From TrEMBL:
Protein name: Glycerol dehydrogenase
Cofactor note: Binds 1 zinc ion per subunit.
Binding site for glycerol: D122, D172, H255, H273
Superkingdom classification of source: Bacteria
Keywords: Metal-binding, NAD, Oxidoreductase, Zinc
Signal peptide bounds: none
PROSITE patterns: ADH_IRON_1
EC number: 1.1.1.6
GO molecular function: glycerol dehydrogenase (NAD+) activity; metal ion binding
Sequence similarity: Belongs to the iron-containing alcohol dehydrogenase family.
Cited CDD domains: GlyDH
Organism: Salinicoccus cyprini
Required cofactor names: Zn(2+)
Catalysed reactions listed for this entry: glycerol + NAD(+) = dihydroxyacetone + NADH + H(+)
Length: 364
């Protein structure tokens, strides 16, 4: 029996200065927040957040995130939450901080508020976390019964983050329709356990349309720290549209190949999630036998926003073919999502496509 499922967060707020409302929004949900953030993000947002909670007359406990979305870190923060009788978890920062905060909230059986300080991934809205080992190797997904209760995105904070993160978010979002389309063709299973809905495909299409239409203008404005209508549109595409689209529309090869890259050592681990998804998306398009025109369209977009499209830019120019096959072996793992593209693709097929993408990109 076919089953169609659509999930979404309880509330989404985006705009300049909305971080100032965090205290009041929290008060609507709970009274004893555990707030998780890293040192850098807290130095940027801490004063605004503290003033917001003071105005709302809510006391919170702050705990610094150690940097890796691992089970060890999740357990540590969960114990902190239990020790302080926290009745809500607030994650402030990037993707790994937010994924960890969702896991901690799940452990505590508490609501969760997500405050992304970049538009670098589509993680904020989803009902899952990507879990890594303490050394940073992908170990799997963790799924939850519901999406976050609130996502609050301050556009001014986002454009003051490093520009590469804004571009990485566009690259992560650009995979949304590519992967959802593949899942739809295969009648594959989405991240919420159903087949893609009409709504999810429509959202994924709007996501890609927004990026191609406004991405370059938004990138230029964000490089100057400016919030423009194009920037607001791309922040929404990166965060809300991509998040709803990937979760309800499905993942395929692009993210599976990203996960495959985690098996490698070296400078590739200095790249962001979106940078690695960039390359994974191009590999998926090539494996789909996309036309030269389609490949050129995506490669040109990525190049214009400084994303890697060659092995050299991925810090993989000296990687052996055998190691690329290892990437392919992890990517085609039945527990990952490449099967939503095809279950006939081999590890060698993936390795060959990784090499071919680089050759094609160098000729543009």
């Amino acid at each position: 029996m076919s089953k169609f499922i659509f999930q979404s967060p309880g509330k989404y707020i985006q705009g300049q200065g909305v971080l100032e409302s965090l205290g009041q929004e929290t008060k609507k949900l709970a009274q004893k927040p555990l707030l998780v953030s890293d040192e850098v993000v807290w130095s940027i947002t801490g004063e605004t957040i503290k003033a917001s909670f003071k105005e709302a007359d809510v006391e919170f406990v702050y705990e610094e995130f150690n940097g890796e979305a691992s089970e060890v870190e999740i357990d540590r923060l969960s114990e902190t939450g239990k020790g302080n009788n926290a009745d809500i978890v607030i994650g402030v920062g990037g993707g790994k901080t937010l994924d960890t905060s969702k896991a901690v909230a799940d452990n505590l059986g508490a609501p969760v508020i997500i405050v992304p300080t970049t538009a670098s991934t589509d993680a904020p809205t989803s009902s899952l976390s990507v879990i890594y080992s303490d050394e940073g190797e992908f170990t799997g997904y963790r799924f939850y019964d519901k999406n976050p209760d609130l996502i609050l995105v301050d556009s001014k904070v986002v454009v003051n983050a490093p520009l590469k993160l804004f571009a990485s978010g566009m690259s992560d979002a650009m995979a949304t329709l590519v992967e959802a389309r593949a899942t739809l063709r295969r009648k594959g299973e989405t991240m919420v356990g159903g087949q893609p809905t009409l709504a999810s495909i429509a959202i994924a299409e709007k996501c890609e349309e927004t990026l191609f239409k406004h991405g370059h203008a938004a990138y230029k404005a964000a490089s100057k720290g400016l919030v423009t209508p194009q920037v607001e549109a791309v922040i929404e595409a990166n965060t809300l549209l991509s998040g709803l689209g990937f979760e309800n529309g499905g993942l395929a090869a692009a993210h599976a190949i990203h996960n495959g890259f985690t098996t490698l050592s070296g400078d590739i681990h200095h790249l962001s999630h979106g940078e690695k998804v960039t390359y994974g998306t191009l590999v998926q398009l090539l494996l789909e036998n996309s036309s030269d025109e389609v490949m050129e369209k995506y490669i040109s977009f990525y190049k214009a926003i400084g994303m890697p499209t060659t092995l050299k830019e991925m810090h993989l120019e000296d990687t052996s073919y055998e190691d690329l096959v290892k990437v392919g072996q992890l990517a085609i793992d039945p527990n990952d999502t490449l099967g939503n593209l095809s279950d006939k693709i081999t590890a060698e097929d993936v390795a060959n496509a990784i090499l071919a993408v680089s050759e094609l990109s160098q000729k543009q």
